[in-house]
Amino acid sequence: MEGIDDIEHIASDHDQLISVISKLDKTQHIIEPTRNEPTNINSEFNLIKKSNKSILKNVSNILSDTASHVEITKKLLKSQEESKVLSKPLEKPQVERIKRATGYLETKKKVGRWDPIVARSRTVDQVFFPLKKAENRLQPTQAFISKLKTKSELERELEAVDPPDIVQEDDEEEQVYPMSYEEMVEHRQHLAKIRAQESYRAAKAKRQSKIKSKKYHRILKKDRLKQQLKEFEELQKSNPEEALKKLEALEKSRALERHTLRHKNTGKWAKNKMIRAKYDKEARQEIAEQLAVSRSLTQKTQDPDSSDDDAEDNVVIPDIALAQDPMNPWMLKQNNKSNVDAEFDFGYKKYLKGKMFKHKEDSGSEDEAEKNNDTTKACSDAGLNTLKNKIEKIFNNKNESAQIDKNIEEDNSTEQNQSDLNQPIQNNSNITKNKIVETEQKQKENKMKKNKETLNNNKKSLKTKLVATSYWTVEPVENKDKKYTEGVGGAFDNLERNISKQVNMKLDIFRRKLRKLEQLTASKSKKKSKRIGNSESYIPENNLEYLKLATQNKKAIIDEQLLETTSKTIPTEETISDDIMSRAMLHNKIPAEEPTNSNIDPSKFIEVKPKFLNSEISRQETELDVLDDEQVVPKVNIEEVFEEDDVVASFRQEKEDEANKDKPEDINLTLPGWGAWGGKGVKAPKRKRNRFITKFAPKTPRRDENKGDVIIKEYKDLKLDAHKVKELPYPFNSVKEFEASLRAPLGNTFIPETAHRKLTRPNVVTMAGAIIEPMDEDELLQKKNRTFKSSNVIQFINKDG
Amino acid sequence: MKVPRQKNQNNPAHKNVKSEQENTNESQKKKVKRYFELDKPDSKTDTKTDEVKVYNVKVTPRILWNQKQKDQKRQFLKNEYGNTFSQRKQKKKYPGKAPIDPKRLEKHSRGEGLQGIGVRNPIHKLKLQKKEKLYQKALEQAARSEILLTEDQGYVELEDEDSNTRAINQQIIARNIDIAAATKIFELNLDFGPYRAKYSRNGRYLLLGSKKGHLASFDWVTKKLNFEINVMESIHDISWLHIETMVAAAQKDWLYIYDNTGTELHCVKTISKVLKMEFLPYHFLLASVNEYGFLSWLDISIGEIAGECNSRAGRPKAMTHNPYNATLCLGDSKGVVSLWAPTVKEPLAKILCHKTPVSAISVDNRGLYMATSGVDRSIKIWDIRNLDGPLQHYKVWSPPVDLDFSQKDMLAVGFNETVEIYSNCCTQTVSKPYLRHKMAKTVNNFKFCPFEDVLGIGTDRGFTSIIVPGSGEPNFDALESNPFQTKKQRKEAEVKALLEKIPAELITLNPFEVTEVDVPTMKDIIDSKKKLLHVKPKKVDMTPRRKNKGQTHIARKKIIKDAARRDHIEKLKAASALYEKDEQKEKPVRKQSFGVLDRFVSNPTKSKK
């Protein structure tokens, strides 16, 4: 044991020594891994890569020295030769690469089995799903019966002992439903009704929210206001605390309004408007409205609890002089247009005021002065506020009267109140009415002055009246308008007037003439009745007569010509042959001339010889022939009579024109006299002609080029082109092939029914209700799939991915 | 036995190749010699192999290759199966369906099919090829189903060969046919002036309209009257609409539409003073031309005018429509026939047919031939499909009043009081009529009844119906027009026809133009794509499937020209020979001239006189 310890000690010492020595030499040494503990797993990295072959040789060399060991050495060497040393395992990446490669090949082979199936299913006309057809053949009777078994005796006995649980189907069926069927139906109907109503309401709300009409919204607001007022009243009766809360909320909103700068004249918009207000009436109005809104919002509601002094302070004394100033927007309180935002508050205020009256009346201890005050206040309000406000006030008054009904004692005072209230309104309205009358009178005067004031202008003025904020302002503005119209529209008016005058003049002249004519005709008819031969009265009729006669005359002329011209008879068979001969003689020179003309005119050579048909000879002609014997009646060759030589010439001309129409003309850029003598009759040299006259390439020959007296129009029919295919669809890249694919009809009126069905059957057919399962490997065994051999398609599919 | 034969067959071919090669060598030196100009080598081979017929085939490498392949295959099969293979092939017990006559196939053919060259994607290519097979099957089936056309065309058979068919009048015909058919010969004597008659599309109903306002429609087979009214206005033309319950009449001022009870359905005031009317059944267009030459197409399915234009040809003389492409043919007083489509304001084509006013036009059912007649007492047959010169030019004794083609291309020509029917007069030049019918009434118009061998003639004193054996199509397509249509079928057919209505824009000279690709526009699109950066335009083969068939082949024309010239020269020779004969007769008299002393020479001819 000691020895071992010593050895270990020495070894460690030795190691230390070596390490120290190696440290002296400053180069780094890779230390050979040493195995400290025996392990089962040998790391390949720890193996010492030294071949043991050399060692063996060394050993053998040593052994070969002694003769006795020769045998052993030989054996050793032999065994060395014979023994197969396991080759070094490949490195991991290499191994994996090989694995991957082989794996790929394997899977490729495996997946490749499906290639023909995929290719076939892609190219097949019709695919039927599910792929596996259920066996629908009937089983033979024996086979079917063999499956049925009667119960054995043991089974029967067992059943008798322990009967199988009877499934309680009845219990399941008798489920307890919360409702009967009728109830359920009813319930559902009810729900449906509710839903429908809801949807109607939603639709209505949506529709209403989309309405842009201001008038409509105004009316809506008014309605809402009334509703709220009513509610508020009721609330006051039923729950005064709530009402108070509402009032407080109102007060709060007022405070907020006072706090903010909304509806003031300090905003950017207001400033802009103010700049414009000088010239623009509408801008002025808008600013006035805005200010009115702010004022109404910030006006303190007169709390019944607050002191009278405050109320007195708040009393606005109407400054009539200011209010009447049309140019002062700040004083424009009377606006017809109510501000939309402020309306609710307005209404409340009015209500509150009414409330105040009521309160005082209720209190019973009322001063005449106070009453007066109130009335004056009311008066002022009435005088200043708009027409709508008046209406509202009336509404208030009504309220009052409702209250008054309770207190019969103070009837008189209230009546007075009412009268007091009503009077200023009436006054006001009276004033306005007067004004209207005045303006109308003025207008009438204007009309009297200016004879032709157009109706349109009047209408415009009326419109402006309606738009204007007050009647006082109407006049000057309208005057301005009139000036404008006089300035610009006047010119038009004048023009119109002139034209109308001229037209009228002319019309007058015509009328006069007409009258004269009527008179004349009347007189003529009279004269006619008296004297028939009156020349003057017969002029038009004579004209007609003359025309008629002319046509008749012409006909007569034709007849004469008919008689004069022809001496030819209808060609008989003898004359036909003669004709041919004579024609042959006539054409004698033509063939000699033709070869020089390279352009072939078929009309010159493909003349179909007329064949004389053995047709019926009309009776008239035979009659004529009969006549012939006795007297010489000049026979007319009708074709010669109707024939027009220029028909052919004009047709050919037409054809030429048609052909020349779309021929591009040569562009001549020669400058006559440039670098050479110019003048009349001097032709440009050939070199110049070649250089400066650009000739277009001849167009493709026309269809009618070699066709004689036929004109075929060459045109592009845009309407038809809309129906034509302009781009080739996908699989085609040849026009010819695409057109070929379209050539055959598919309809059953064109081809036999069976063929039609085959050509139009669907690509994919699925059986209704059947589960479509993915393909399984049975498909590989099917013959149709195995025999599919279209290497092109398979290759393409493989390449595609 | 077979091996030596093959060798025999092969040998001459090889020899021919050799000779060809020699020829090519020669051609370098001399002129090019064609195969038919070779004499010597052929004669040699002929002498060697008397038993085997030798055809001279211009041998190309392809043919050689094919031959080689065949030989190899044959050899292979022989090695595999021995001689049994060929025997087995002969001994096929069930040979399958009967072969189809290639002519019939050709008749039903829709032209060249898909080659599969212009489709790059093999999947689509295979699909299209499959479809192509289906087309081929459909074609075969169509050809096979001709067996269902059981009825034969009528004809006239004479006992003695020499006599003419034109001598056969209606009485003789009536005597020789069955009683039911004989009822189709009848006459209606009506009092209201010249009548126009038109048959409905299925040939069951007849519409009569007279100049004096008499309008009647009836089932002419059972003689059951639908309605009979007098419109108290002149009727210039009448027309059936798409079904027999609607009728259009061009009256004095406006166009009226009546139903089958004579109730006025519409008065179309947008179309006035109509002279001629035609109904285009597939487009639902009622085409009309008025006194002033205004053409208008009324779409009767929606009641709108589909097209209007002024023909600028004055009062129309004749009008008809081409059933092939639905264009209107309008004949004017200058002898020009112009073709019109509703969407084009100018004539699609103009043909100068006669130098005198055109009196009648008719186009045959297939749209191949057009017959025109002029006041110049001539009838011309034109190739209307190619718009080419007169195929036939006939001269007659009096100007024809009306022309009409039957379904089987018989041409009826109406003269003053006679109607003559010419059969097969378009492709051949005929000299005498097939039938002739004389009447004591003047002919106004006439129409062949579809699917019947009947010609209805509207005359000045009523209507005459005559039998023309073989004029009508014996087999009808019930899906197309059914003479035995029931009310329900009619209703269904109407709906179907409306669904299949062809828009008016598609009326062009070439009815297949819609199926063609708009190549110029496509080119423009491709060119514009080429200009874009980084966009690779598709390579497209632009050659269209159909060549312009309308274009005349100059080579063909040259041949005709040469033939004409040769003919002409021969005639000239004959004429000159005749002339020379005459001259020779005169010449000896002239030759012996003695100048001033001629007076002393005794003249035998004169002395004779």
From TrEMBL, chain A:
Q: What is this protein called?
A: U3 small nucleolar RNA-associated protein 14 homolog A
Give residue spans, biased composition: Polar residues: 414-433
Note whether Transcription regulation occurs among the keywords. no
Q: Does the keyword Cell division apply?
A: no
* Domain of life the protein comes from: Eukaryota
Q: Which UniProt keywords apply?
A: Coiled coil, Nucleus, Phosphoprotein
An example Pfam family from this entry, by short name, is: Utp14
One biological process term in Gene Ontology: rRNA processing
InterPro entries (alphabetical): SSU_processome_Utp14 (IPR006709)
Lineage runs: Eukaryota, Metazoa, Ecdysozoa, Arthropoda, Hexapoda
State the gene name recorded for this protein. Answer: 101746130
Q: Which GO terms describe its cellular component?
A: small-subunit processome
Cite the residue spans of the region called Disordered: 293-313, 362-381, 410-434
Kindly list the places in or outside the cell where this protein is found, as annotated in its UniProt entry.
Answer: Nucleus, Nucleolus
Assigned protein family: Belongs to the UTP14 family.
Question: Which residues lie in coiled coils?
Answer: 437-465
From TrEMBL, chain B:
What are the Basic and acidic residues biased-composition ranges?
34-49
This protein's major location comes to nucleus
The UniProt annotation puts the region (Disordered) at 1-49, 69-104, 581-609
Which biological process terms from the Gene Ontology are attached to this UniProt entry?
maturation of SSU-rRNA from tricistronic rRNA transcript (SSU-rRNA, 5.8S rRNA, LSU-rRNA)
Q: Where is the composition biased (Polar residues)?
A: 1-13
Q: Where is the BING4 C-terminal domain?
A: 433-511
* Alphabetically ordered keywords of this record: Nucleus, Repeat, rRNA processing, WD repeat
Can you supply one Gene Ontology CC term for this chain's record? Answer: small-subunit processome
- Entry-linked InterPro entries: BING4_C_dom, WD40/YVTN_repeat-like_dom_sf, WD40_repeat_CS, WD40_repeat_dom_sf, WD40_rpt, WDR46/Utp7
Q: Which domain of life is it from?
A: Eukaryota
Which compartments does it reside in?
Nucleus, Nucleolus
Q: Pfam families from the xrefs?
A: BING4CT (PF08149), WD40 (PF00400)
Start and end residues of the WD repeats are 351-386
Protein name listed in UniProt: BING4 C-terminal domain-containing protein
Species whose genome carries this gene: Bombyx mori (Silk moth)
